[in-house]
Amino acid sequence: MAKSNEGRRVVAQNRRAFHDYAIEERFEAGLQLTGTEVKSLREGRATITEAHAGEMGGELWLFNAFIPEYHGGNRFNHETRRPRKLLLRRREIARLFGAVRREGMTLVPLSLYFTPRGWAKVELGLAKGKKLHDKRAAIKERDWQREKQRLMRAGG
């Protein structure tokens, strides 16, 4: 399960995921990274809007996450969009695979951050895709809440 936000240093967020998916459950997973990937992340440069998690060889991987090359005089750089292994307990991985297979859910990365101890982590959301009418209803609700706040400030 994902822990509280205390002491996190967020590198990348996937705000689009909350619009496109209904997030049912959240998980915190470690990332297996190379040295230049960590250096690039520490500079705050990464994009996970197009990324997703999935199975490959019985393990959980993060696909299509963009971590740019590190330009600090290093000639041994990494591939920018290579698959990265996610580190979870075997039981959690089995549960996630079961949910994805049986219930048609998706694993979406929500944020990429560093813990206070310096570990790079990714917050995954077990999500179900929203239909177009659900997205419209969410936008309508958000606009109404904003208008209500405006009226309360002006009238109160």
TrEMBL record:
<dbReference type="Pfam" id="PF01668">
    <property type="entry name" value="SmpB"/>
</dbReference>
<comment type="similarity">
    <text>Belongs to the SmpB family.</text>
</comment>
<keyword id="KW-0963">Cytoplasm</keyword>
<keyword id="KW-0694">RNA-binding</keyword>
<dbReference type="InterPro" id="IPR023620">
    <property type="entry name" value="SmpB"/>
</dbReference>
<dbReference type="InterPro" id="IPR000037">
    <property type="entry name" value="SsrA-bd_prot"/>
</dbReference>
<protein>
    <recommendedName>
        <fullName>SsrA-binding protein</fullName>
    </recommendedName>
</protein>
<comment type="function">
    <text>Required for rescue of stalled ribosomes mediated by trans-translation. Binds to transfer-messenger RNA (tmRNA), required for stable association of tmRNA with ribosomes. tmRNA and SmpB together mimic tRNA shape, replacing the anticodon stem-loop with SmpB. tmRNA is encoded by the ssrA gene; the 2 termini fold to resemble tRNA(Ala) and it encodes a 'tag peptide', a short internal open reading frame. During trans-translation Ala-aminoacylated tmRNA acts like a tRNA, entering the A-site of stalled ribosomes, displacing the stalled mRNA.</text>
</comment>
<dbReference type="InterPro" id="IPR020081">
    <property type="entry name" value="SsrA-bd_prot_CS"/>
</dbReference>
